[in-house]
Amino acid sequence: MLLVTARITTTPGAADTLLPAAKEMVEATRQEDGCLSYELLASTEAPDTYLMLETWRDRAALDAHMAAPAMAAFGAAAGAHLTGVDITLHEVSSSGPM
Questions:
Q1: Cα 83-41-72 angle, rounded to 5 deg
Q2: Which pLDDT score is estimated for 31?
Q3: Going by C-beta distance under 8 Å and a sequence separation of 6 or more, which residues neighbour residue 12?
Q4: Do the Cβ atoms of 2 and 62 come closer than 8 Å?
Q5: Do residues 53 and 26 make contact, with C-beta atoms less than 8 angstroms apart?
């Protein structure tokens, strides 16, 4: 299983443009084969900063997601407004309690 975290920063005031596109992308992504969870969270401390928390069955599912039409549409809508994207990928061997 893969856990992906992405910290996304945008230009000031871009939320009105980005959030509708992000909502469509999140809803489509949750239907993709291999998507175990997919959340978009807004920072309460850093304006114009968002966190994506994603869990994928395997690398093939994540790769298919990155090539999906919903991701391309979001990229087209968001591209001019993104000022930074920091992605971290973690391989997780168990989803049970620690």
A1: 55
A2: 97
A3: 47, 48
A4: yes
A5: no
